[in-house]
User: Fold these one by one.
Assistant:
Number 1:
Amino acid sequence: MDQKRRTFLKVAGISTLAGLGAATGVGRLIGGAESAMAAAEEAQVNASAQNGTGQNAACGDACINRYGMLIDARKFREDPTLGERVVLACHREHNVPNIPIKKDEIKWIWMTHYDNAFPEQANLYRDEVNAQFQLPILCNHCDNPPCVRVCPTQATFRNADGIVMMDYHRCIGCRFCMAGCPYGSRSFNWSDPRPYIDSADMNRDFPTRTRGVVEKCNFCDERIRKGLLPACVEACGDSKAMVFGNLNDPNSEIRQMLKQHHTVQRNPSLGTLPSVFYIV
Amino acid sequence: MYDRGKIIIGLVIFVLLVTIPVWYNRGTTRTAPELVKPTNANSCVLPVEEMRAKHMQLLNTWRDEVVRTSDNSSIVIEGKAYPKSLQLNCMECHTSKVNFCDKCHDYSSVRPYCWDCHIAPVE
């Protein structure tokens, strides 16, 4: 009996070892083939991206386009009504509700003082101009967006144009992105926004939002797709107070303007790499 | 079996309660809702049977393509382009939410949340 058990254990042990060894060997062979295929695919994707024909949906490090904006605060000082017109154009275009309760308000683009927009550049002895006038701020559509990193459902993501987008179907309203965004660019719908939208004045081609989702500026993705400029840029007319363009294209107007002027980004030390630049 | 009487009475009451919908609605028949068909078009993006069974999957696919992969190419059928949009395409022909969407959704007690955000046509 003892002898039999001994031989059984030996045989069982050896066959288990043999089985495990064979499994890992085969696994390594299959894995090797797969990784080789993946490398080939990756090379193809890179090649098509360089040709400018590829579509990178996930948009990790290499976005094909990176849309950006240059805001000339001097123009907003020259024309004090411009700011209001810009904000109104955006909020009307996107059915942004006008909620009178301050802590519930929804903002896509708004006017603020220099000290609030650029807290890192705070100065003990403020100049009169910046103390008096306001400049517009909006989502920076960062190259390294913290909101995208913290979103647990990937409701906020970067698209192939480098725009930080919201997918309201997926948003669960956890507000991690609001905690993650260092610019306060995001607003939460505490209640149904519909009652606060003027139904006579609303844009019937664009949806509203619902209770329990976070919303923000979408760089007028729906207009860019049609070949139009963002609503705020359009509201500025020919004043060049706001310039919109592709930062990845060295010949674009915005890149030329960035070359000619000294510009600043909001809170650059945070490493979010904003796509919105300011001439102050 | 202990307490046989109590258990059997309890079971009978339970069965009656559970089957309330069956015997309460016995004899009443409800006809399937009649839909008002669009007058400005003869065909949809898919055949009627497929639309009836799968319009929700189609809308989900469109949503994912347009929102997440920025693929807003139109669907071209017989030379006519249909954008992949509920608000900007479907409702162009089905101009009434009340007489089209709601008819079946109410009948089958389905409450999709499309219209929480998307704007229904003025009626």
Number 2:
Amino acid sequence: MSLLPDFSFYNAVIYIIKGTGLTVSLIIGSMLIGLTLGLPMAAIQVYGPRWGRFLVGLYVWFFRGIPILVLLFLFYFGIFGLAERLLGQILERRINLPPFLATLVTLGLTSGAYQSQIFRGAILSLHLGQYKAALSLGFTRVGALSHIILPQALRVAIPAWANEYSILLKDSALAYVLGTTEIMARIKQMVWITHLHVPFYILAGLIYYFLTWLGIRALKRLETKTRIPGLGMEMEAEIAKNDQSV
Amino acid sequence: MTNQSSVLPFERPKAAQAETRPLMEARNITKYLGGKLILDQVSLSLNKGEFKVLIGPSGSGKSTLLQCLHFLLIPDKGDVLLEGKSAMDMSHKNICAFRQEIGMIFQDFNLFDHLTAKDNVAIALRKVKKWSKDQALSKARDELDKVGLADKAELYPAQLSGGQKQRVSIARAMAMEPKLMLLDEPTSALDPELIGEVLNVVANLAKGGMTMLMVTHQIGFARHLVHEINFMENGRVIESGHPESLLANPASRTAMFCARLSELTGNQ
Amino acid sequence: MNTWEFYSKILIPALNQGLWLSLLIIVPSAGLGIVIGVLAGAGRAAGPNWLKGLLDLYVSIFRGTPLVVQLTMWYYGLPSVSRFLGSLMAPLGLPDFTWKFLVFSPYVASVVAFTLCSGAYQSEYIRGAILSMKKGQFQAAKSLGFTNSQTFWYITAPVAIRRALHGCGNEIIYLIKYSSLALLVTIQELTGKSSALASYYFRPLECYLLTALYYLALVSLATFLLSWLEKKLHVPGLGQAKSL
């Protein structure tokens, strides 16, 4: 079966599982980028000025309306390609931006759009009175947001975050089209060497399934650990209210 | 006891002369739910124009009995007769026809949430009785008018108060022109200030001579208006009789139960 | 060739062709996905336990793995299954082409992959909508003399449709975007066309930006239609079902 002298199925599996590290760092990285972008964007959408809301709305519309595959192509071949050329001209040498970076940026920016909507929902589910009470105690607006609203919104958003994690995980499997050597790319390499399609695709499915399960479980634990009695009830109550009326 | 009607807020309507057979009769109904005996050989009958009340502690089987009489639950043993005809062993189609003859009012209203008040009243007329749309809607408006909600016909259940919802549900049941009505604690899900409007509608039905069986804890309302109180406990009817005679006898279970109720709620 | 000519003579006609092909994938996948979602959702909400278990397994597999893995399996994986089964059957004298039906064309593979994946997600919303029905609604219908099928058509369905609409509609919007994955099994749909042109003419930025606009238009149109429909069917107090 082996086309390469030192090929063995065991080594192949190890090689693929090592790609998991790259996938996981892609996801964690883009979730953090998304968080950093999403939180202020959510705050702007709820409390910000009209033009700020408009700009955030435009950003969200753009990233939520375009397939992740097209975004990956656009950023890597289009924008990163342009940046490579411009940087190359300035520095007068050949610049190569790694595909991993392009994937990370694309997934991160997209996740920012989705996360802003998650946090927007979370903030809206909190009482408006929380913000007003903070202002009345002399907090600045940013202070009220970061000390009063943020800690609550983060907690309330965890379940939606678990969902965002599983979407990002599955989207990250597309990174192979740019040449990022994460799980799916390594699976394709092994299939190309061994011509064993089905076993390797099943392996891919199992790894992704496991990662989905693991991440959701971890976030569930985080949710229980950070739980404050009564908080998040608003969102649940909102849902319960709907349930009751049907 | 017979000549007290002058001091009562409502005229107690006279029950029709007992016909040869009761309008509805339950014979030895037994019902198990989840392996537990809920109804233990309960028998009950309603003559045309009679208004009877079921009271008793929670879990005594009142609601289950009502649902069995309406075949929302099928009794395990016993028989339910409507105008002398047995309802047991009927086909699905006949059960549906049987249910049309009987109106039911639920504790939590159970209005159809996707329909306006008038459509709630009209839908069964149109789909079950196959009336034309115009006919059904004009009947619906009449019935809503009778419960004082003509102006709320276009509103959805979520836009109505609890008392209004319950009145719509009474209109919905009455529109089917049932032979009798079963009312399962129609006011227990209502805020105190809304109870009166629903009880008024029920009192109007009673004055109109509607045959009714009602589960309620509104003793003050019941004692003046009904012909018989049935007290249930542990799946059996253990006392039944004229309200004044039952409540006047302090040793009766009914009187003791009602005394405890009024202690708890502070009224009557 | 100047830029204007490149756009009007090459890029836009090609993308229009790709758009047509994309629609040919999206529309049947969305329709079949809804059908599967309704069947699976109803089965998971009200079916017997063995069916629930089976359908839960289906949903968790198709939601737990990336669509690209599923698509790859349908297109690249199944032919090898077919070969394997063929070689098993050869000694029995069965002709080799017995298992050829497992070899999907790129188009069939995409529609199958998108349908099954979309159906799994759809079933979540349908299931949620059915489970959120209050028992009292059925009781009231029964007590008015509705038969079971009348109850379904006049009470359950109108409520369930309203509650599932938002989720199911969004799922179709996702499907529009993920139809771009068909490129990975060699289909020249919108993304495939634009990717081919981008590398041939070496103008990736313009090609992909314009493609992005096409998708934005599609998604915005779908979003608009969905919210129009939601508004049209809106009933006070009937919220969206939550799907977990």
Number 3:
Amino acid sequence: MVVNGKKLIEILDRIADVIEENKLMLTELDAAIGDGDHGINMSRGFHAVREKLKDDDGSDIGIILKKAGMALVSNVGGAAGPLYGTAFLKAGAVVEGKQTVDVADLENMLKSALEGIKMRGHAEPKDKTMVDAAEEALNALNSSNAAGESPQQAIKAAVDAAYLGLENTKDMIARKGRASYLAERSIGHKDAGAASFALILKTIFDELYGQESS
Amino acid sequence: MKKFINNPERVVDEMLEGMVAAHPEYIRKLEGFNVLARKNAPVIGKVALVSGGGSGHEPAHGGYVGKGMLDAAVCGNVFTSPTPDPILEAIKAVNGGAGVLLIVKNYTGDVMNFEMARDIAEMEGINVDYVIVNDDVAVENSTYTAGRRGIAGTVFVHKIAGAKAETGAGIKEIKATALKVISNVRSMGMALSPCIIPAAGKPNFTLLESEMEIGMGIHGEPGTHREKIRTADELAAQLMDKILEDMSLHAGDEVAVMINGLAATPLMELYIINRRVHDILKQNEIKIYKTFVGEFMTSLEMAGCSVSILKLDDELKLLLDAEADTPAFKVI
């Protein structure tokens, strides 16, 4: 797997569509235990990413991710804006100047993004946040890469792990964000941020390897 | 939904245009951003204070921009934190060279967006620090939640930190005073009816005709519990029990009281609540130095109120009495 800037912009473009298609699902997850605007905010944010990258020449992966991060920070709002914005900025920082990235780079990017999310949100695993999807995904990607699996297998494992992480949030008591005020009443609902995270990762896989293999 | 609006997507922009039209002697709007700044900002040599958050809580925070309180208010969409960009613009516009102190209510989105703006401003060489207000005792303050929410007690932080900044104090001293207010103030609210976010078009929660929610937040967040409506005296006592339980107040201590209407509750009812709050404080031999009754931090058209109690010392009394001249809060 080698992704160049042009392909990355295509992937980000597709993410905007997929978020739009899943806007209602994300908003409903959020409405159950949060304030019900996650889908709307994320859709606005990724459309801004598309707009911002429209004229990018695709020559520097780091710059593309930084532009995406800034567009998310400026347009998503709420808590998801700073979190996803920081994630993309941090991912971009580790591939600065690169024309292409491979699966080892993807692991570094995900690691750096997760660190950024934890730093910005002061969140840890089991807080019922996107960290729970991201952490599982990173661990799976790391194990698969270490075991010498193919990039396709490794990214597939990361996507599956992200969805497992998302499922796990259902049984957790929220400790961050507005959902935390519900304490035990937050049990039984999946976290909207973990859902959008898993969805983004799945879209990356689908764009690289086609939907039928997922 | 019955509201005086033109377009749900433009309520904040149009409100700001109307506010600037009403108070041109106090405030101006930053071109291209939903930020209200003091007309004469930046005040050279003075530490600037910036607050803000989601809109829908008017007069918070734009109404508190002026002498003796805020230098700028950043106005997000209704009940939604502003993004870092307008916060950064506000910081730049009001920085008079002595630094900028941000006053942030404790909500996850607000804290993250203000922190990001602070990080970027610091990279640009501006000295920025911040305080987080968390006065709402309805929410348990534990490591297992996002912490207590910031509600009407925030207005005391604006007033007192703002007065301190006017004295020419440095950013560290002002922050220390703001933190003292935060550690000395407790609030709790209750709601009789929900509110409608214009873009959503429907109430954000429902309450039966005979029902109310004790401890409800200013965005309709859940409180401690729901119960049947009772007399004003009983409800005031319920809020005061929870507030006093959480404060170390002793006979002879002095306090400031704020009875805050959430927008649809008449002043008549706020004064009835205030009457009982005063009785309770007197029974506890606590001296009431000053009382504020009115709408300071609202929640769109929600019916309800909050009570805030601020424990005072000599410094806080002096600063509370200092001149403030803003559209919504004046001390002469």
